[in-house]
Backbone:
């Protein structure tokens, strides 16, 4: 036993004195002590991670490890410590010990701070309840599984098995008043005061001392400032709850500065509360600023797109699904389908929390029309979509329920896309021999998918024992089905309808497996249940219905009509925690008697063509909890709704002038034509909490809404506005692309999000990411390494850091300033458990993102804490190494090379191991002269067949063959990046007319321009340095270069050359702009764009074919020739002038040098009779048959 104790003591001594041992390094208050790590078993690590992810912020009971006045200590608050007594709270805000991040321009920045850190200081803020009962008590609630142990000093001082709790309750603070402290949804701590019936909330008063200042910001939030940071308590959300519905009560902080007895600053903080029902409990919760446009982006190609579904995950990543008819819709490499398939395709997009970039984007469809209608996402990030398809070759998966198109105009489909968007987990048709289409999909916790829609097929698949297995003989019946988690069979399937038209348009499920569906019906005998709210059709064209099925769909739990004497339809449905069903939809101008409830927000139809409504049914379907119109003087068409954490309904759709908005909302005026709207109703439907327009000068409509864990609202839909539609900077697509574009708009707080990954770009799951500042938070990165905070501060500095028991992160901490969204990447290096030594090597690799191959000629510098700099250069394989580096100190390492940007731009590292790898990813700063059609950084094999006018392209990324008809015999094929998207555009120059024709890769747009005459030689290149290829010709008859700037549209003409010259434009002087150059009988004549100076030099002989090819990979074109007389390539390195020669080819070959493997170096290559021969830098050769002898290979050489 003594031996075991000694081992424990030795283990504890290797850690810092304040370490809390819980089986894994848990983040405590961020500045409480130095970062430490303990080796743990994988099983213990998994258990601790599981508990940590479940408890985030927790409260540790005081068992003698703290001052005796403290009862509980909050762990994981990030940015401050928090102690709770029986009636007080003490915040300790410490001076941050953060690691600065040097800027790229000054790699030495911050080095002195790293070497000379002063001791940490702290400020204590006391919040005492004035007049609180001396007999009040405190207790922990919801005890957690894990315990805390302290092994410090002598064994008599150890503390073991200390309980931890999710919440702390303060009892009897005042007569009838208590408080509960708990973790926020995204981390941090909040408190609620609970006021019992007939108790007086005016008793509650905080006295704040120890702060430099206490103030209210413009949004009513309480800001407690200290020398070392500030604490923010959000404006109170005060409510009363009845039957699961929270009704907000007006409230605010009331602040009064005072002086303490000793003359120090003191502040009184009370709560001003409006009128409320004093016979019921009242909760005051100092808690999103929906008036802030967090971001807004367009999403689309040159044709039409519409967003029909939107979801958000725990990390704040956003999923959008819809329809597109653009072949240039933005997709990402490595996803399931990157090319358009038919007239209308479905799309599924996952984007980062600030809407700045795509995580993945894919088409889903066949060669006909594919109409996506619904989207949902599970907790693992798998996306489920549904709709209707007329494509017999719509993608299905082996073993799926139905892999054959059933017939009719449309079959329904249900498709599950994996978390990375790279493959279908399952995909199936659903239908019979007539028309079938799905409108909605949801999933349960077991992964079963519930799909609803309509069918005209009498042989639509149903299951034995379901409620209705026979088609009812009308035009359409609704259907409700449950698909098993593998998508291989139906758990149940039933018709839902009667003798006329019945459409099921929305579905939601509860925790017991009951499905509640909504839709519209023209059937007067639609099935209803005894005791339901309305069992009789109301005589109009259609009524709304709401139906709840039992878990096996064998019977209806309830079913009711809802409607008036004209036409009603429902478009959205949601369930609250008690089972109440919320629906939204629209009524026609004849529906003056649509049922509303007394006291609802709007009980009168406006008389316009369509009025929107929001209706809530009680859990049994027997009565309306509330029902209100949501419209205006010009009408509205709600499309969907969602519920926030308090059960308030948020509805979105389209509307016109006169729609009701709320004071201070983002946009309170119609922008012209139809606008989208976002409206939030209170829990009783009696008032609007928030309501805003979202739109531009054209027609705008929203079709789906989602709410993230912090209450921010996201909507998607479509816009035809060419001006005025809101967009923000640094988003994916700030401008419309033409036609109808989808949009994604977020109202609420800015986000801080990103990814934890290793140096190879692989995900690091369960990294502990902390946010501190005026707003604090904590979360674990998900399985793909993503994290996100959506509840962020609008002022003050914020710090975000990442820790792990298995990795050190670079950088470890980011310092951020308010006013925008941030995407932060943490790159992790595995922690070594081996011993340290005094000196050792530091090295790694620089890898080109174009081809994932090492990049030579890159300069690496390492800077120590004293400002000393050492430099080296990468070898031919991209590797580098610094020897004899003193370990255990802080260093900055950075990479430099013209023409490349590096990630990370600088690496701040603490060398604690004997052999440290620091790797950099190099991304070309400008497009390379390769015929890259699929955007993977490699040249694709491509030929133009004059006899057909067809282009044949083999994409190097997927091996997919593309055939595009574009051009006629006699055209000169050109593959250059004219639109700046880093992909080659399909283009031809027609000498007979001097016209350029182009098909843009970015948006599929067609372009034609008359620029040139018969006999001109096309010489497209980036002459103005804007990253896009300019249209240009060389006219042999007079030696003049004619060009149009893509940046400004300006025309210029320069005489440089004679009739017999061969033009070779390229950026020889490395200024980012192509130089004018001609080859004449072995002599090169060049006019530098950087300084206007000419140069003339001999390299080659008459008959050689000139080339400006970067064979050495230094980012600059080399002077090169191919000699047909003997099939030899000759070139001079631009970097050092070294001469090279290699024999590769025959006299009749067509030279086609390009970067076929993506390593940043062009390979010697020739085209011979339909075969491509390539010689790689390692001496290996490859031959590929692609094309016919009469085809023209696509190459930059003319």
Residues:
């Amino acid at each position: 036993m003594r031996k075991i104790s000694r081992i424990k003591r030795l283990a504890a001594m290797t850690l810092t004195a304040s370490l809390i041992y819980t089986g894994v390094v848990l983040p405590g208050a961020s500045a409480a002590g130095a970062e430490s790590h303990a080796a743990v078993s994988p099983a213990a690590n998994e258990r601790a991670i599981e508990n940590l992810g479940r408890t985030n912020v927790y409260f540790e009971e005081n068992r003698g490890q703290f001052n005796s006045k403290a009862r509980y200590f909050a762990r994981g608050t990030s940015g401050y410590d928090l102690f709770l007594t029986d009636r007080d709270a003490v915040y300790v805000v410490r001076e941050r010990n953060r690691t600065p991040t040097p800027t790229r321009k000054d790699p030495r920045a911050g080095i002195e701070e790293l070497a000379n850190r002063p001791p940490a200081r702290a400020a204590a803020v006391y919040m005492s309840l004035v007049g609180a009962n001396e007999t009040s008590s405190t207790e922990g609630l919801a005890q957690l599984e894990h315990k805390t142990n302290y092994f410090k000093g002598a064994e008599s001082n150890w503390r073991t098995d200390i309980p931890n709790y999710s919440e702390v309750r303060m009892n009897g603070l005042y007569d009838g008043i208590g408080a509960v402290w708990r973790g926020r949804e995204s981390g941090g701590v909040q408190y609620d005061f609970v006021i019992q019936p007939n108790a007086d909330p005016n008793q509650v008063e905080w006295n704040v001392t120890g702060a430099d200042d206490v103030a209210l910001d413009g949004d009513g939030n309480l800001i407690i400032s200290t020398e070392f940071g500030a604490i923010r308590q959000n404006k109170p959300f005060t409510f009363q709850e009845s039957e699961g519905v929270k009704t907000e009560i007006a409230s605010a902080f009331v602040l009064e500065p005072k002086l303490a007895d000793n003359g120090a600053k003191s502040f009184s903080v009370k709560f001003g509360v409006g009128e409320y029902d004093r016979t019921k409990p009242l909760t005051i919760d100092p808690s999103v600023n929906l008036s802030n446009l967090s971001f807004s982006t367009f999403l689309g190609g040159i044709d039409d797109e519409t967003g029909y579904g939107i979801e958000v995950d725990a990390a704040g990543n956003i999923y959008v699904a819809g329809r597109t008819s653009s072949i240039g819709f933005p997709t990402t490499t490595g996803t399931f389908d990157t090319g358009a398939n038919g007239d209308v395709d479905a799309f599924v997009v996952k984007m980062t929390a600030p809407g700045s970039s795509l995580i993945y984007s894919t088409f889903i469809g066949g060669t006909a029309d594919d109409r996506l209608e619904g989207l949902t996402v599970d907790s693992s990030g798998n996306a489920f979509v549904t709709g209707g398809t007329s494509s017999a070759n719509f993608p299905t998966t082996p073993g799926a329920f139905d892999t054959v198109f059933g017939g009719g105009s449309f079959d329904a489909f249900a498709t599950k896309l994996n978390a990375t968007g790279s493959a279908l987990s399952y995909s199936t048709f659903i239908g019979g021999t007539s028309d079938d289409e799905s409108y909605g999909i949801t999933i349960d916790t077991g992964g079963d998918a519930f799909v609803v829609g309509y069918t005209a097929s009498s042989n639509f698949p149903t299951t034995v024992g379901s409620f209705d297995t026979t088609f009812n003989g009308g035009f359409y019946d609704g259907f409700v089905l449950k698909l098993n988690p593998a998508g291989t069979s139906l758990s149940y399937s039933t018709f839902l309808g009667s003798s006329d038209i019945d459409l099921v348009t929305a579905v939601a499920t509860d925790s017991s497996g009951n499905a509640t569906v909504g839709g519209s019906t023209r059937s007067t005998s639609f099935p209803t249940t005894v005791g339901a709210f309305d069992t009789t059709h109301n005589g109009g064209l259609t009524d709304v219905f709401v139906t709840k099925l039992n878990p096996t769909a064998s019977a209806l739990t309830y079913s009711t009509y809802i409607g008036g004497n004209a036409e009603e339809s429902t478009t959205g449905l949601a369930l609250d925690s008690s089972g109440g069903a919320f629906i939204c939809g629209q009524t026609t101008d004849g529906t003056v008697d649509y049922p509303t409830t007394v006291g609802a927000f709007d009980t009168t139809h406006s008389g316009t063509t369509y009025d929107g409504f929001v209706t809530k049914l009680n859990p049994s379907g027997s009565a309306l909890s509330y029902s209100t119109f949501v419209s205006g003087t010009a009408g509205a068409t709600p499309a969907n709704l969602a519920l926030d954490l308090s059960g308030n309904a948020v509805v979105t759709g389209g509307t016109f002038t006169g729609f009701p908005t709320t004071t201070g909302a983002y946009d309170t005026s119609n922008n012209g034509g139809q606008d989208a709207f976002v409206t939030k109703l209170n829990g009783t439907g009696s008032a609007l909490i928030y309501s805003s327009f979202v739109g531009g000068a054209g027609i705008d409509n929203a079709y789906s809404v989602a709410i993230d864990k912090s209450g921010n609202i996201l909507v998607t839909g479509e816009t035809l506005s060419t001006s005025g539609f809101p967009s923000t900077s640094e988003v994916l697509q700030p401008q419309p692309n033409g036609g109808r574009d989808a949009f994604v708009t977020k109202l609420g707080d800015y986000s801080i999000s990103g990814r934890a990954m290793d140096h190879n770009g692989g995900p690091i799951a369960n990294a502990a990411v902390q946010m501190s500042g005026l707003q604090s938070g904590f979360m674990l990165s998900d399985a793909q390494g993503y994290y996100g905070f959506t509840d962020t501060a609008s002022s003050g500095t914020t710090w975000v850091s990442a820790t792990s028991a298995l990795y050190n992160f670079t950088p470890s901490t980011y310092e951020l300033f308010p006013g925008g969204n941030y995407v932060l990447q943490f790159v992790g290096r595995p922690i070594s458990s081996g011993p340290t030594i005094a000196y050792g090597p530091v090295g790694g690799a620089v890898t080109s993102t174009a081809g994932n191959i090492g990049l030579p000629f890159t300069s690496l510098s390492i800077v120590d804490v004293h400002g000393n700099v050492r430099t080296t250069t990468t070898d031919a394989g991209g590797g580098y190494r610094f020897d004899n580096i003193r370990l255990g100190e802080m260093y900055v390492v950075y990479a430099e090379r013209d023409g490349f940007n590096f990630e990370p731009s600088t690496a701040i590292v603490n060398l604690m191991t004997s052999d440290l790898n620091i790797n950099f990813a190099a991304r070309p700063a400008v497009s390379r002269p390769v015929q890259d059609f699929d955007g993977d950084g490699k040249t694709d094999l491509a030929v133009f067949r004059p006899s057909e006018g067809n282009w044949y392209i083999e994409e190097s990324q997927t091996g997919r063959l593309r055939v595009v008809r574009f051009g006629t015999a006699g055209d000169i094929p050109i593959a250059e990046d004219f639109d700046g998207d880093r992909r080659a555009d399909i283009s031809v120059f027609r000498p007979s007319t001097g016209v350029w024709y182009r098909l843009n890769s970015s948006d599929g747009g067609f372009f034609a321009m008359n620029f040139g005459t018969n006999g001109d030689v096309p010489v497209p290149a980036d002459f103005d340095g804007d990253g896009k290829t300019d249209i240009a010709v060389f006219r042999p008859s007079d030696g003049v270069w004619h060009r149009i700037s893509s940046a400004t549209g300006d025309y210029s003409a320069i005489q440089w050359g004679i009739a017999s010259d061969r033009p070779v434009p390229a950026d020889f002087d490395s200024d980012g702009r192509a130089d004018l150059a001609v080859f004449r009988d072995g002599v090169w004549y060049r006019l530098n764009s950087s300084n206007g100076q000419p140069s003339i030099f001999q390299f080659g002989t008459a008959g050689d074919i000139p080339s400006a090819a970067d064979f050495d990979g230094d980012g600059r074109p080399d002077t090169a020739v191919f000699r047909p007389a003997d099939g030899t390539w000759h070139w001079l390195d631009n970097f050092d002038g070294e001469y090279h020669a290699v024999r590769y080819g025959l006299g009749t070959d067509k030279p086609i040098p390009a970067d076929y493997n993506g390593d940043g170096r062009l390979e010697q290559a020739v085209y011979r009779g339909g075969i491509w021969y390539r010689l790689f830098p390692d001496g290996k050769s490859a031959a590929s048959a692609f094309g016919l002898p009469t085809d023209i290979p696509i190459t930059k050489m003319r």
